[in-house]
Amino acid sequence: MNEQISARRKELGLTLDEVAAFVGVNKGTVSRWESGEIDNMRRDKIAKLADVLKVSPLFIMGMQDTTANLNENMKRLRLEKGMTLTDVGEKIGVRNATVQRYESGEIKNIKHETIVKLADLFGVTPSELMGWKTADTAAPPSRPQKKGVRVPVYSSIAAGAPLEDSEVIDYEEIDAELARTGDFFALLIRDESMQPVLFVDDVVIVRKQATAETGDIAVILIDGDAATVKKIHRNHGGLMLIGYNAAIYEPHFYTNDEIESLPVQILGKVIELRRKL
Question: Which CATH number fits domain 1-138: 3.40.5.10, 1.10.260.40, 1.20.1740.10, 3.40.50.1000?
Answer without folding.
Answer: 1.10.260.40
